[in-house]
Amino acid sequence: MPQAPSRDRIDSAIGALQRLSEVFLDRRRQLARESGLSEAEWRLLEEIAAERFMPSLFARRRERTAAAVSRVLRGLVDAGLIAASVGESDARQRVYRLTPKGRERMAKLRERRERAIAAIWRRFPAADLAEFERLAAGLAEALERYAGRRE
Predict the structure, then answer these.
(1) Number of other CB atoms surrounding residue 38 within 10 Å
(2) Inside any domain, residue 1
(3) Residues 6 or more apart in contact with residue 9 via CB below 8 angstroms
(4) 85: which strand partners?
(5) Please, which residues bridge with residue 95 across strands?
(6) How many CA atoms lie within 13 Å of 56's alpha carbon, on the beta-carbon side?
(7) Phi and psi based region of residue 106 (left: phi greater than 0; alpha: psi -120 to 50; beta: remaining)
(8) What predicted TM-score, i.e. pTM, was given to this entire model?
(9) Whether residue 123 has pLDDT greater than 70
(10) Domain containing 73 — which CATH number?
(11) What pLDDT band is residue 41 in, cutting at 50, 70 and 90?
(12) Residue 2 lies in a domain
């Protein structure tokens, strides 16, 4: 049976995870800013680009109010990055799509992101990334299960 980690090892791992999380989020904000976007705008543009965007579902998944999502959408329309139209099958639905300016902005953002991936992630051996992915997925599942408990 494997030996349980010491409390010092656990604290060190938690510290490393916190640092990684903070640096990752900071870098995401930086990428968004470099592209003239907020993180919220980037997330919405990604969803719209994937053609699976439903404002109410997006708001629920991101734990945002519908009003907050609507404000960001209006800003993206005003900036000329997306266009909104009435749904063909349901006039109550709004359909959002990237404009040429929005597609160009997303292409530049993706290019910057790919450069960062090449500079950082591609230098790690595939086996190390596979182990990291396994550990991170297991940790996320355990945290989700624990957070779902009612104590």
Answers:
(1) 14
(2) no
(3) none
(4) 95
(5) 85
(6) 3
(7) alpha
(8) 0.76
(9) yes
(10) 1.10.10.10
(11) very high
(12) no
